[in-house]
Amino acid sequence: MRALAIGGFLTALLLFAAVGWAARRDGARIPPLGDVCAVLMRAEIGPVPVGRIVLLGFWWWLGWHFLAR
Known about the structure:
By secondary structure, the protein is mainly α.
């Protein structure tokens, strides 16, 4: 089971790297991660910065999921 989980994470890492590489090619239709984060950070509903709250929640979940023991 441990090997399956490690294999899944390695596959996700390789796919993430492949999409990042494809986004940086000339004429790519895929936006780079920095552009996606910039659009997310500007997202607001009225005076509430929803994008920043979502990004903070994602980082909190990621840290809790991988670093809390």
